[in-house]
Design goal:
heterotrimer, A: 277 residues, alpha/beta, Rossmann fold, six-stranded mixed β-sheet, 10 helices, 10 strands, globular, C: 395 residues, mainly alpha, MetI-like fold, 2 domains, three-stranded antiparallel β-sheet, elongated, binds adenosine-5'-triphosphate, binds magnesium ion
């Protein structure tokens, strides 16, 4: 197996690649153990173990290309859509390994929802956008029930007041920030337990970003949230724990306040003080 | 994926259902194929037949003589044509094919003649040609003008080069492509006949038949002969635009455009209705159709169609076919073929 | 530069149109002659109206109009002024209303194509007699009829209601139009679902391996195969192997299906590929299965592109003659096809056949038929644009 760090100038020894900090938590929602991800011959995630706690926001930070997206896409098997991608190790939710045999990804993806970097509402009405998930999963018995799911989801996503009079308008007609909240509502509508967010605010302006951040904070009461972000401020504002990735390795994980004030690992310190990345 | 398989199955099912359903069903109309030269005449008869009888109008495909005979000889049964038109007589190889496929009895019907003309715009004077002139003007290789029994690449540029009595005009002839029956007939009736006037070429026929044919039938490719496609109307239009050019096509196109174009004299005879009918105009060929005897009693209307075609009001000197430009046969010949049709006298197949 | 190119191509296009319209518009009118036909009871036996001598009635009428014509040759020339369709027209009239027998009726019957050409100015009067298709006498008769107000140009309904004929004045494109319609109906019915299904399978579900690569290369090659090859294939498979009837729209439809399938598959795959991946991710992200993702989200978005590809494929199929030649659809067919297995031709075939007819009157009819074909093509392409507009969604 080719080792991408081999010719890297900032070569890290095997010793130094061991994760610093406590990867475990008391109340895990998901448990990842020895996860390795390969794109063909190339390894993108190397031996990562990490717990994701209930009712917490965990932020994934690290330089571009370090494998943050790759890692969170493992959590709902979104990587399956990439043909060359291969995942090893265990990711357990409700005592089941999601990479085990005979696992149906459909309920898994309902259980572990995802919000993408660029808002991507369906080219359908706002109502349809939110109702689609519940419909295909058979979550409602009647139109009234469906209406209610749509309303509560939009309310939770903080979008209801703005769109309640135009539910039949196309979702693509909303502003970028509204679209992203619509996508969050769409994710919430299928009652997930974990929400994965891959740089959800990178396409938004500061005001829209602030709204989403507030929303994430509120959602924490019901869901576990994994958020990938390039903004250290954002990570420190919304998350309770932070994980720092570097070239496919999970370098350090710990309480967000600790990571940003007293990083234990040299690489983490270099990154958060802006020395590289 | 499922959708696809289902659709494919449905499509195949449809084909099978239709195929099975139709193979057995009888045909209630006459199916005719064959020569595009006979097509304009056969269609007139078919239309007349369809309008004046209770039978359906026959279907006539324009496939060319060879293509028609191939379809015709493919077998007996409703899926095969009943009649094929031809602008030449059936070849012995085609007879063999017929017999091999069970088509044992066919009736040959000669219907009349078609003249092939070389025409130009009325804006110029008509040419007075011999077949020898035509051969010298159009063949790829001609006898060395300096004398001797030797072939050289055609050196003639103008008609005057070919024959001093002809005008000093560039040779420019628009004609059909090699796939056309008109071209075959023209090569045989005009060019080969012209080539034969050279004794030593005529002698070649006995010694080396292949080379003889090649000499007689190969048309020059240096631009003097222009292949103008199968569409004779197009040639007529081009002649109008270019008074120096000549065109080769069937008599019926000359007949319909006498206001714009004129036929060249060949061996002193102009291609007129009477000239061709009297047999004086040398470049004319017989037209035929062939009937599958086994079908006559099976396909409704066959006998009546044959009767219509061989009636005086159709193929007679004053018949409607002559109005369309077909040259009728002499009385005796008409009588002979009329009897052949009446008795359905089959052709000798050996 | 680009603008100049577009302008140039528009100029050529309009030149083409002007030339075709210029040649063809006269075919939409046809010269008719008014005859006062006496339907005498002697000639029309009420019990045998079907088989009465209607041409004889027309001839008698003409003789009575020009009593000075005596010689046999002159009579023939006189009869030649009126289309042979006149007799059939009177026959139909009498059969419809047998009470007309014994009366004199005034009917407009089509003139012969030569007279039609003369009235339309396509036959020059000032050339010598033998260089004309109409003799001096015939010209005089036509002038006499015109003087009496018995000659009129009327809208040529025959052109749009009749099948083929060897008499230009009786020939129409309706048979060919119906043939084209039946053929294209089969083509559309088969090629659209099969094409879309193949495209969806290849683009969304097929594993990427050597087999699918091979199929892909082959489809792309098929799109470039000359259309006559599909005719040969149709001849071998549908006629010789499956025993389907010759000259039938169903076979034409099958052959054209083979021809248009590659076009539709390629266009449909392009349309699928153009659907942004973010839509697929969104659907998968809320737990839609692959099937649901494709059929609920990707396919509806790709459909306008697929429809456009299909209509363009259909338009191409509408203009084809070469493959139809091999399966016997290039034929003289008078009767209007009534079903998918009746013998029939298609519009471009009709144009091809007329273009090769010696009669001068077919020249303008050829252009007129071309105009109709062009009109169909324009309508189809406009439909493609409209459909795309209607279904297009921005995302
Ligand atoms: N589809 C793919 N095929 C092959 N290699 C990939 C693919 N996607 C990502 N990679 C590689 O895997 C590594 C990790 O990529 P990933 O997208 O997870 O990084 P990231 O941390 O999310 O970066 P960014 O912050 O820029 O989004 C990179 O080296 C990338 O080149
Ligand atoms: Mg990323």
């Amino acid at each position: 197996m080719a080792d991408p760090t081999h010719s890297d100038p900032k070569l890290i020894s095997r010793e130094k690649r061991k994760t610093v900090g406590d990867i475990t938590v008391d109340n895990p929602r998901m448990t990842c153990r020895n996860v390795n991800v390969y794109y063909g011959e190339k390894q993108a995630i190397r031996n990562v173990s990490l717990d994701i706690a209930r009712n917490e926001v965990i932020a994934m930070i690290g330089p571009s290309g370090c494998g943050k997206s790759t890692f969170i896409r493992c959590l709902n098997r979104m990587n399956d859509t990439i043909e060359s991608c291969r995942v090893e190790g265990e990711i357990i939710i409700d005592d089941v390994n999601i990479y085990g045999r005979d696992i149906d990804v459909v309920p898994l993806r309902a259980q572990v929802g995802m919000v993408f970097q660029k808002p991507n509402p369906f080219p359908k009405s706002i109502y349809e956008n939110v109702a689609y998930g519940p419909k295909i999963h058979g979550l409602s018995q009647s139109r009234a029930e469906l209406d209610e799911i749509v309303e509560t989801s939009l309310k939770k996503a903080g979008l209801w007041e703005e769109v309640k009079d135009q539910l039949e308008h196309p979702g693509t007609g909303l502003s970028g920030g509204q679209q992203q909240r619509l996508c969050i509502a769409r994710t919430i509508a299928v009652s997930p337990e974990v929400i994965l967010m891959d740089e959800p605010c990178s396409a938004l302006d500061p005001i829209a970003t602030a709204r989403i951040e507030d929303l994430i904070d509120e959602l924490r009461e019901q869901y576990s949230i994994v958020i990938v972000t390039h903004s250290m401020q954002q990570a420190s504002r919304v998350s309770q724990r932070t994980a720092y990735f570097h070239l496919g390795d999970l370098i350090e994980v710990g309480k967000t306040t600790d990571i940003f004030t007293r990083p234990k690992h040299q690489l983490t310190e270099d990154y958060i003080t802006g020395r590289f990345g | 994926m499922f959708k696809k398989t289902i659709l494919l199955a449905a499509a195949l099912g449809l084909i099978f259902a239709l195929g099975a359903g139709n193979a057995q069903a009888a045909r209630d109309y006459i199916s005719i194929v064959g020569s595009s030269t006979v097509y304009p005449f056969a269609t007139v008869v078919a239309e007349q037949f369809g309008k004046t009888t209770s039978y359906k109008t026959p279907k006539i495909e324009s496939t060319g003589s060879g293509g028609g005979l191939k379809l015709f000889c493919a077998g007996v049964g409703v899926e095969h044509p009943d009649i094929t038109n031809a602008s030449r007589a059936i070849k012995s190889s085609e007879k063999e094919m017929c017999v091999k496929n069970g088509v044992k009895e066919i009736v040959e019907v000669k219907i009349g003649y078609d003249g092939i003309v070389m025409a130009n715009s009325k804006k110029s004077a008509p040419l007075k040609l011999t077949r020898r002139d035509i051969f010298l003007a159009l063949a790829k290789e001609v006898p060395d003008p300096k004398g001797g029994e030797k072939l050289v690449a055609n050196p003639y540029k103008t008609w005057k080069d070919v024959n001093p009595s002809l005008p000093n005009v560039k040779i420019e002839v628009l004609g059909p492509p090699p796939t056309s029956g008109t071209r075959d007939a023209f090569a045989e009736l005009a060019m080969e006949a012209g080539a034969k006037t050279f004794d030593w070429i005529k002698a070649m026929k006995k010694t080396d038949k292949k080379a003889y044919k090649a000499v007689c039938h190969t048309v020059r490719e240096d631009g003097a002969y222009i292949e103008a496609g199968e569409n004779d109307n197009l040639i007529v239009q081009k002649l109008e635009a270019n008074p120096d050019a000549f065109g080769i096509f069937g008599f019926s196109f000359l007949d319909q455009n006498t206001d714009k174009i004129q036929g060249s004299y060949i061996e002193g005879v102009q291609p007129t209705f009477d000239g061709i009918a009297a047999g004086d105009y040398p470049v004319s060929r017989p037209l035929f159709f062939y009937v599958k005897k086994a079908h006559v009693d099976v396909i409704p209307g066959m006998k009546e169609y044959l009767k219509e075609f061989t009636s005086e009001k159709a193929w007679g000197p004053d018949g409607y076919l002559s109005e369309k430009g077909m040259i009728p046969m002499p009385d005796a010949e008409r009588k002979q073929y009329h009897n052949a049709v009446e008795n359905l006298t089959p052709l000798m197949m050996k | 530069m680009g603008l100049a190119a577009i302008l140039a191509s528009l100029a050529f296009l309009s030149l083409l149109f002007i030339s075709i319209i210029g040649k063809g518009y006269t075919a939409f009118w046809q010269t008719y002659v008014r005859l006062d036909v006496h339907l005498s009871a002697d000639q029309l036996d009420r019990t045998e109206l079907e088989t009465a001598d209607y041409p004889g009635i027309v001839k008698k009428t003409l003789r009575s109009m020009f009593p000075e014509v005596k010689s046999r040759g002159d009579k023939r020339k006189l009869y030649a002024l009126i289309s042979s369709g006149a007799a059939f027209q009177i026959r139909e009239m009498v059969l419809e209303d047998p009470d007309l027998v014994g009366k004199t009726v005034s009917v407009w019957v089509p003139a012969d194509d030569d007279v039609d050409m003369l009235v339309k100015g396509h036959i020059e009067r000032d050339v010598p007699e033998e260089a004309r298709r109409l003799t001096d006498k015939q010209l005089a008769w036509v002038d006499a009829l015109t003087g009496e107000g018995r000659v009129e140009k009327r809208f040529n309904r025959t052109l749009f209601t009749h099948g083929d004929s060897r008499e230009p004045e009786l020939a129409g494109i309706w048979g060919a139009t119906v043939g084209s319609f039946l053929t294209l109906a089969i083509t559309l019915l088969l090629s659209f679902p099969i094409g879309v299904a193949s495209a969806v399978y290849l683009e969304e579900f097929a594993p990427k391996n050597r087999w699918t690569d091979l199929i892909e290369v082959n489809i792309n090659n098929l799109a470039a195969v000359p259309s006559i090859v599909f005719g040969l294939l149709g001849l071998a498979v549908f006629l010789n192997f499956f025993g389907l009837p010759r000259s039938a729209p169903v076979v034409g439809g099958l052959v054209l299906t083979l021809m248009t399938l590659p076009t539709i598959i390629i266009a449909s795959r392009a349309a699928l590929l153009a659907v942004p991946p973010s839509i697929r991710e969104a659907a998968l992200g809320v737990g839609a299965s692959k099937m649901q993702t494709v059929f609920h989200h990707v396919l509806p978005l790709a459909l306008p592109g697929m429809l456009t590809g299909t209509i363009i494929g259909m338009a191409r199929a509408l203009g084809e003659t070469a493959p139809l030649l091999m399966i016997g659809m290039v034929a003289f067919i008078v009767d209007i096809p009534g079903g998918f297995t009746d013998p029939s031709t298609a519009l471009p075939v009709q144009i091809y056949l007329w273009a090769d007819s010696p009669e001068k009157a077919f020249v303008e009819r050829t252009s007129a038929a071309t105009l109709v074909l062009l009109a169909f093509l324009i309508v189809m392409n406009a439909l493609a644009v409209v459909l795309r507009r209607r279904f297009e969604r921005r995302w």
